[in-house]
Design goal:
Layout lengths: L1 E2 L9 E7 L4 E9 L2 E10 L4 E5 L12 E4 L6 E7 H4 L8 E3 L9 E7 L4 E2 L4 E2 L4 E2 L3 E9 L3 E7 L8 E6 L3 E8 H6 L14 E15 L17 E7 L12 E7 L22 E3 L5 E3 L11
Antiparallel strand pairs: 1-6, 2-5, 2-7, 3-4, 3-6, 8-17, 9-17, 10-13, 11-12, 13-16, 13-17, 14-15, 14-17, 18-19, 20-21
Length: 300
């Protein structure tokens, strides 16, 4: 997994990793001068989390790409943010869709970090018509077909916090924590003095989508759907790293629930890479060669 973390001042970058599997060996690295430099490594079991926060490591900040690798065949979810989004309760705010256990925005199991509650004293709760009147952090849970949902804190598996509710078809539910409730699942102090981190586990009987936000004033997000996928796609790469002149083969398998008539497939490759061959293999083993087109700003 490759990503960057925006920041303005030293120490603001945050990377929070949650494991979906037991015995998951995880490595966090940064890119510098043509090589990958290890920042931290972790060995996590299912539902365990690890945090790398720049201000806890000599106020570190890196203007580069990060990479996370884990044990082959095992999975992680990664929450990346900065001080403006997760610094402290009050004016920090953000919004993001949460990846389900299966890696999509629609699923039945989500593990999500809860950002510090934002100032929402004057915000009207549409379900009651009254102002919230306090700081809150939210999970907005959207259901296409309706769902029965249980939300619990991941560290104690619901011993400290557990709620269940039902969402109607094409409706949503606003699950929120007050500042006190948030601190209760974060060592009671909202500091790293103990083992707890504010992660929640969302489990449902039917697919839903989950939006995580501690909104206060200005923020943005990319939205996702509660609809299940009509197809799945898995990709394998011949090698995980490459240097100039290397040839890397990417094999992508698309599985559809039904036939697709006259499909068109376009693969856009970023600048700096040159496509040397493109083929499609059908289920009946027939092979079609793709057309490679080069433009000034992209290859596909």
């Amino acid at each position: 997994m490759y990503f960057t973390v925006p920041y303005q001042a030293a120490g603001e970058q945050e990377i929070r990793i949650a494991s979906w599997d037991d015995k998951n060996d995880i490595k966090l690295e940064r890119y510098s001068n043509g090589q990958w430099i290890e920042l931290r490594n972790y060995s996590l079991n299912k539902m365990q989390a690890a945090d790398w926060v720049g201000r806890n490591f000599s106020n570190a900040t890196f203007n580069t790409v990060f990479r996370i690798t884990c044990t082959p065949g095992k999975r992680v979810s990664v929450f990346e943010g900065n001080w403006f989004e997760t610094g402290s309760p009050g004016t920090s705010d953000m919004g993001t869709m949460v990846s389900a256990e299966n890696g999509t925005t629609s699923g039945t199991r989500f593990l999500t970090y809860m950002a510090p509650p934002g100032n929402e004293a004057n915000v009207i709760n549409p379900f009651t018509g009254k102002a919230f009147g306090q700081r809150l952090t939210h999970l907005y849970i959207f259901a296409k077909e309706g769902a029965t949902v249980t939300v619990k804190d991941a560290y104690s598996n619901g011993a400290e916090l557990k709620r269940s509710f039902t969402i109607g078809a094409e409706r949503y539910y606003d699950f929120y924590l007050t500042e006190t409730e948030w601190k209760n699942i974060y060592n009671g102090t909202a500091t790293n003095v103990g083992p707890e981190r504010p992660y929640l586990l969302v489990e449902t009987d039917k697919p839903v989508a989950v939006m995580n936000t501690n909104f206060n004033d200005n923020w943005m997000l990319y939205t996702g759907s509660s609809l299940t996928q009509a197809f799945t796609q898995n990709s394998e790469v011949s090698q995980s790293t490459a240097i100039p002149a290397d040839t890397v083969t990417v094999t992508s398998t698309i599985n559809t629930g039904s036939g697709v008539d006259k499909p068109t497939i376009e693969v856009i490759v970023q600048d700096g890479l040159k496509v040397v061959e493109s083929t499609i293999t059908n289920p009946d083993s027939t092979i079609h060669k793709g057309t490679i087109t080069e433009e000034a700003t992209k290859l596909w």
